[in-house]
Amino acid sequence: MKIFDWLNEITFLKRPWDSFSEADQKTFNTFIINRFLSMNSEWVDFVNDLQVYTMGIPLKTKDVYNLYCDIFPKSKTFLRYVKGKKEKKYEDWVTELVGKHFEVSKSEATNYLQLFYMTKSGKGNLRELISLYGIEESLIKKLRI
Description:
By secondary structure, this protein is mostly helical. The chain folds into 2 domains: 3-71, no CATH class; 92-142, no CATH class. It has helices at residues 3-13, 22-26, 30-37, 44-56, 61-71, 92-102, 106-118, 120-132, 137-142.
């Protein structure tokens, strides 16, 4: 069974656990179920509170399934999975330049850039640092610092 089949079972069909084959029972993943159930804005706090019992205390998957079937209302529910937006905050060449200058990794260089961008003086210091490496003024202006 797929995740959406399990969600349908929990929220609508509510068949007994023993009616599923052993192979199907092995596909039940409490973490993923919690993740999808929390996509419903009305249930997010409730699912979060239940995680102490479903994840923290080692409940059997059968018990977690039965708990969810008993607690959640019987209704056809659509749970849209919300993905985070991955935006590139800084130009790659700036991250690399800061990383080489301070001799740090790219992720640390990104943290440095966050600090630079926090204040007006930090932006000025970043502008000076970039100009030390002979970067054209037109590229520096694109950074809006």
